[in-house]
Design brief:
This protein is α+β, with helices and mostly antiparallel strands and 100 residues long. It is 15% helix and 25% strand. The mean pLDDT is 84.
Length: 100
């Protein structure tokens, strides 16, 4: 069980991000530490993700405010591109949680 869990979930990567990120890394409320995947990470200093996904949604950080966006993978957007937030026609916004 101790070997299978890290190999089949995102727990190790997310736990490390939460520990090392010192408040800048977070798991979206709609997702979980078990399934969230940071698809695009910040290239500069700071441990945070720019784009992410899980089994049912895509996530993107706002470039202008303290919020993130999410959209269902199964959506009705024409020409939907998960990597291009301008094609997300049914996106929802949520505030980034403040660090504890």
């Amino acid at each position: 069980m101790m070997v299978v869990l890290p190999l089949t979930t995102r727990l190790p990567q997310n736990a490390w991000g939460l520990l090392e990120g010192r408040g800048s890394y977070f798991i979206p409320a709609e997702s979980s530490i078990w399934t969230f995947r940071a698809d695009v990470e910040n290239a500069g200093s700071g441990s945070f993700w720019l784009r992410g996904s899980d089994r049912t949604r895509y996530y993107a950080l706002s470039e202008t405010g303290r919020e993130y966006f999410h959209i269902e993978k199964e959506n009705g957007c024409e020409r939907f591109d998960p990597g291009d937030i301008s094609t997300w026609c049914e996106l929802q916004a949520a505030p980034i949680p403040l660090p504890n």
